[in-house]
Amino acid sequence: MTEEKASFVHLIVSMAEAAYSYLGVIEDPFTKKKAVDLKQAKYTIDMLNMIEEKTRGNLTKEEKDLLDEVLYDLKIKYLEKTKNSKK
Predict the structure, then answer these.
(1) Helix residue ranges per DSSP H, the chain
(2) Which residues pair with 23 in a beta bridge?
(3) Best CA proximity match to 25, nearest among 68, 17, 63
(4) Among 50, 48, 45, 41, residue whose Cα is nearest residue 12
(5) How far apart are CA 44 and CA 50, in angstroms?
(6) Cross-strand pairs, 36
(7) Which candidate, 54, 42, 52, 50, places its Cα nearest to that of 18?
(8) What are the structural domain ranges in the chain?
């Protein structure tokens, strides 16, 4: 088995997967169930926002595009979940 080299892209993908899991979009890799934890989802999205702010101007186009897409999608899904939870 070959080990993957740690990279910024892998960090963002890993954090995005965690956020999608907290939003109930994908299964939790440990429990194999979908569950919603909006507090953890918001925390993870906030962490990704902080990474975006702290790395602004220092990313490749690929890294910036990925981070922008992930943040946009997660924020939309978070808003949808919070709307649905208030109904």
Answers:
(1) 8-22, 38-55, 61-86
(2) 36
(3) 17
(4) 48
(5) 10
(6) 23
(7) 42
(8) 8-86
H or E element at residue 43: helix 38-55
Residues 6+ apart with CB under 8 A from 41: 19, 22, 23, 74, 78, 81
The angle, 0 to 180 degrees and rounded to 10, between the axes of the packed helices 8-22 and 38-55 is: 160
Q: 36-58, pLDDT tens digit by residue?
A: 999 999 999 999 999 999 999 99
- Distance of CA 33 to CAs 30, 41, 43, 68, 81, Å? 8, 16, 20, 28, 17
- The Cα–Cα gap between 44 and 76 comes to 14
Give pTM, 2 decimals. Answer: 0.88
